[in-house]
Amino acid sequence: MANRCDIPTAHFRHRLPLQIRFNDIDMLGHLNNSVYLTFMDLAKTRYFQAVLGDKLNFGRFGVVIVNINCDFCVPTFYDDDIECETAVVAIGEKSLTLEQRIVMPSTGEVKCRCRTVMSGFDAKTMASAPITDEWRQALEEYEGKKF
What is the biggest distance separating any 2 CA atoms in the chain, rounded to whole angstroms? Predict the structure, then answer.
């Protein structure tokens, strides 16, 4: 049976190795579906740290999730060696879109894939805000393309 998530999506420069904990496993012996989203949240944070470095200041400007879609492809088990790949694939005026995958780096098998739309957010006004030029430039440099 083919893995429906093996369809190539984005080029991923950012990879984060993940550690599966005993309490991440459900009664069926595989990774609970809610844990995938936790792993992807961690990878988003590490991605933005890698891209923006000391320019990252969520107290001033950041992003919030407005939509998330996840495909669970094949089960992940306790002994699986996995990592999360992350890439920004689109930037609009006030939003950006990320693609992420949980994969086994040794085989390339895609366990789960996710597409997330995030809105620019001004923490002082508590309202959506345009993606700053600073963020746009850093993301374009990191991803090696114009959006």
Answer: 50
Q: What is the DSSP letter of 29?
A: S
Q: 113 with 100: CB under 8 angstroms? A: yes
- First-to-last C-alpha distance (Å) of the chain: 36
Cα distance between residue 147 and residue 127, in whole Å: 23
Residue type, 62: G
| Amino acid symbol at 84 | C
Tokens of 28: 């069926």
Best CA proximity match to 113, nearest among 27, 25, 12: 12
- The pLDDT tens digits of the residues spanning 127-143 come to 999 999 999 999 999 99
